[in-house]
Design goal:
The protein is α/β, with parallel strands linked by helices. The protein contains 14 helices and ten strands. It is globular. GO terms for molecular function: 4 iron, 4 sulfur cluster binding; catalytic activity; metal ion binding.
Length: 347
């Protein structure tokens, strides 16, 4: 029996009120007709709870655009799951946040894609979205909802990264996630020029690693497992957090965790299961098989878990077992998720 993932990300809807250039979910203005019904969503949640999942992340689209979302979240809480919501923050007000707390939601991640309104709004596709998101931050703070910032690293925000981190700290965020922009289909169509080159990526990761030495909150970098290497090479351990707690955070210092035991997996609005939102390779669908069966029987996951099967420079790299590169970036660049990660500065 294969150990389950630490967390599951469930995108409850494709519907969203913004038009972000990079959207990994390829969200839309309306819900998809094939989204899991509330009955199917609750059945999935029951399977996750019985499986022993520690953390369920509700994502989208924008989860708050689904009318029955809080009912789904409440069911997850009743089943004993720790729940986090990924949101653009624009629909958060004090009343909504209080309802989320009553539904058992324990934390929200709010997308802040710049330290200035101009930078954020241009990327998010709506003038005024920065102010609305920051109003959402204020609502969380006033209602007592723990929150973290989710921020996309791209060429237009390279000079703003220190200010973005400071913004998270100053506003009381408990963590800062800097997402390395990966060329999923929408990025290829709408903003491929914003993807960092290898030199830029290395410089950013080195800066973030050094910032973590004395930063009062955790810095995580989904999409760039090479961040792990910088932390290890420089012997950087955040002094504000016990090592035991850090080891419980997926992908903090263990490289790519997509599909890995004690790692993570993603369920899309229609029930399709993929290793990660950045690695959009279908493993199965929860309408046809249980998520446990998909996890244990997928040939794709079997390959991902065998790092000896990595190809190219990633397969030869001395850091293969502690990094493995971003499998999503490898797939989008070569069509083979086991190939070299072209974004790595060691290539």
């Amino acid at each position: 029996m294969i150990a389950p993932p630490f967390l599951v990300s469930y995108a409850v809807t494709k519907k969203c009120n913004l038009k972000c250039k990079h959207c990994y979910s390829d969200s839309a203005e309306e819900r998809s007709p094939d989204e899991l019904s509330i009955t199917e969503a609750k059945r999935l949640i029951e399977d996750l709870a019985n499986w022993g999942i520690k953390l369920l992340i509700f994502d989208g689209g924008e989860p708050l655009c689904r009318e029955d979302f809080l009912d789904i979240a409440k069911h997850a809480s009743r089943m004993g799951l720790k729940t986090v919501v990924g949101t653009n923050g624009t629909l958060l007000d004090t009343e909504t946040v209080k309802k989320m707390l009553e539904a058992g939601i324990e934390c929200v991640q709010i997308s802040i894609d710049g330290s200035r309104p101009e930078t954020h709004d241009e990327f998010r596709g709506e003038v005024g979205s920065f102010k609305k998101a920051m109003d959402g931050v204020k609502a969380c703070r006033e209602a007592g909802m723990p929150f973290q910032f989710g921020m996309v690293i791209r060429k237009n925000t390279l000079r703003e990264i220190p200010e973005m981190l400071n913004l998270a700290v100053a506003n009381g965020a408990i963590a800062a996630e800097f997402f390395d922009l990966v060329e999923v289909p929408r990025v290829k169509m709408r903003c491929p020029e914003q993807v960092l080159d290898r030199t830029e990526r290395r410089e950013v990761m080195e800066w973030l690693a050094e910032a973590q030495r004395d930063c009062p909150i955790i810095i995580r970098v989904p999409g760039c497992p090479m961040y792990t290497l910088v932390l290890k090479e420089r012997n950087i351990a955040p002094k504000h957090f016990p090592s035991g707690l850090l080891k419980r955070i997926p992908y903090y210092d263990r490289g790519c965790a997509a599909g890995m035991p004690n790692g993570y997996v993603t369920v899309l609005p229609n029930g399709d299961v993929i290793p990660c939102m950045l690695l959009q390779v279908k493993l199965g669908n929860v309408r046809q098989k249980s998520i446990v069966e998909i996890w244990e029987e997928s040939s794709v996951l079997e390959k991902l878990r065998d790092r000896r099967s990595l190809k190219g420079r990633c397969g030869e790299c001395r850091f293969r077992d502690v990094c493995a590169g971003c499998r999503g970036r490898a797939y989008e660049s070569t069509g083979d998720f086991m190939e070299t990660d072209p974004g790595c500065w060691l290539v």
